[in-house]
Sequence to fold (526 residues):
Amino acid sequence: MKFCRTICAAALLAAAPLCAAGVREGLDALAKRDFAEARRQFEAAQGEPDALYQLGLMYLNGYGDPRDPAKAVGYFERASAAGHQEATVLYARALMDGAGIAKDEAKGIGLVAKLAGEGHARSQVVYGTALEFGLHGLEKDPKAAIEWYRKAMDAGNVEGTVYYANALAIGNGIDKDEAKAAELLKKSADDGHTLGMVAYGQALRAGRGVAKDEAEAFKLFQQAADKGYSEGQYEVGTSYLFGRGVGRDPREAARWIDAAARQGSLRAQRMYGELYRTGSGVPVNRVEAYKWYTIAAARSGGTGDSANQARVTLAQTMSSGEIAEAERRATAFSPQRGVRPSTAKPVPLARGDRIEVGGKTLRVPLPRGYVNVWQIGERVIQSNPNLVGVFPSLLVAMNQEDVDRLKLGIRVKDLRMIEVTKASFDDSVNVTPKLFEELMKEFRVAPSSNPQRVDTVVRDDERAYCVLQTLIPSQGGEGFVAGIGFLRLNDRVVGIRITSSPGTQDVQGAIANLAREWIDLLVNAN
Fold:
């Protein structure tokens, strides 16, 4: 129940069907991903509790601006004071976790208890959990927890049903009845609830209250995972990892665990650290292992404590520079809602200066000082199971001096990478100037209204379109420069990507010059 877990706004908006005009217009803008207009509408309607709540969600999720938990909590607090129940839940969670505000577990759990008493089902589950496990300063009271779960279940809350069934299965605060627990979980799964699918799948896998059936359990996990549920993704991943109900496949396991970890699943984050430590499904990488252990260790409880111990043990084999880099990556991490494993398969990276696209050979000369780094590129792809996008890389290059620094173990503060990528699902199409123009109409970037984003069009003609985007954090720190372009070469279309950090104006200018130089080389060679 960590506060920093990204909240899906769409799921929460249904609780407020009657909206003031400004709030309604703001929601319409959100649905179109026009974040600047959404914020303007919500700010103009701050007399409405739901407008404050929506502003809090925008800052919590990083919609339009970088995530800002402190600002999010400020809006949730104001909405809570005006009687907004969903905002009160998020404000209470922030207090209990100390996320974006000074930690005050007593105040946070007090707010939850008040909402639970008023019949708010989600708060009843949160309060019941605190009582069952003795969290947030409360004494353990499993019997009282059961009553709160029962109330939430009777109100139709899926979490209440699952928590009640889990307690029933082990006899915690209630007489043990595994069969009845399995019956409740099966009904929840049959009703299409992802949490129920995972919980009933776990019962099937363990043979708890129902005949053991690992294959059927895997099917349920897969159904929940296909709906984007992070715990379903985690269960699919561990099923592949240990060969439960499906053939053992560590690489496939890493893909699912990666997606779940990036969505914020604590168990997946802990397990992902283990995969990087042992080299199961991904190459051994102590920095990434320490990073994921650190992310998981920030959460209290058994899994978080286990991750912290694993981090302590791993640290004995790492240099201070490696630990600092891992902590930097952990601090930069932010959960993302809706992460799915990539369905695209990586293609072999070019090892020379030629690539094959739709039956034609294209020359790929590199800018001065840049070299083909297919070995590094393939290792990066192997280390990031879901890095492969819809259009995978065909060639990867880096500055020779940066390559030498990496080989010596020196952190590169201004790492620049350039890539040629696939740019269409069917490479064999003959792309005429007219077709290229029509294609670019779909990709041209509209000017950004975000003051933290600077767009620079590098080239826009019948042979190439390229734009750079510079993201500059509003609160200081390093930003990021990303360039994307499309080129028509020998009647084929390819993509180019250019990345660099930090995202300052000076770096943006240097990267723009690099893009122009490289595009000229590519166009003239083909």
User: Anything to note?
Assistant: Residues 1-18 have pLDDT under 50 and may be disordered.
